[in-house]
Design goal:
The chain has helices spanning 21-24, 29-43, 55-65, 79-82, 84-91, 133-146; strands spanning 4-9, 46-51, 71-75, 97-101, 124-127. The chain is of the alpha/beta class. The chain has a 5-stranded parallel beta sheet with strand order 2-1-3-4-5, with helices on both faces.
């Protein structure tokens, strides 16, 4: 199990490539998964890649991954701002957690978008690097694990 990195995606990311491409780009979630698999494979890790629009499902996945996993890469999407059950589940994790946002949440049009409640419990955050943030997050988890962290 420790050789598994979980990439968990929140609401509306299933429409990536279609929804607001001027903000999120033209890559689809399948494209992101392929990028993540290539990075995980190169680092010698297995990958579990998931997307949900349901908060309870995200909580279940985090709880399943919380012990013994190499790490979690999470794009909480709209859960970022009010997903307290997800925040509580992340608090129980004993592995590195990297929060990823495709857009720079600190430069978005609405001030509430810049306040991630998840940031208080994650190892690090990548925001504004487009879908390239995902493989960078996997690379960071692999780097931490190679150092026994």
């Amino acid at each position: 199990m420790a050789s598994v990195i979980h990439v968990l995606n929140g609401p509306n990311l299933n429409t990536l490539g279609e929804r607001e491409p001027h903000i999120y780009g033209h890559d689809t979630l399948a494209d992101v998964e392929a990028m993540c698999r290539a990075e995980a494979d190169a680092a010698g890790f297995d990958l579990v890649f998931r997307q949900t629009n349901a908060e309870h499902e995200m909580v279940d996945w985090i709880q399943a991954a919380r012990k013994g996993s190499a790490g979690i890469v999470i794009n909480p999407a709209a859960f970022t701002y009010a997903g307290y059950p997800i925040l509580d589940a992340l608090k129980l994790c004993d592995c590195p957690i990297v929060e990823v946002h495709i857009s720079n949440i600190h430069r978005r049009e609405a001030e509430w978008r810049s306040n991630s409640i998840m940031t208080q419990v994650v190892t690090g955050i990548i925001s504004g690097l487009g879908v390239n943030g995902y493989p960078l997050a996997i690379r960071h988890v692999a780097w931490l694990r190679s150092r026994g962290l």
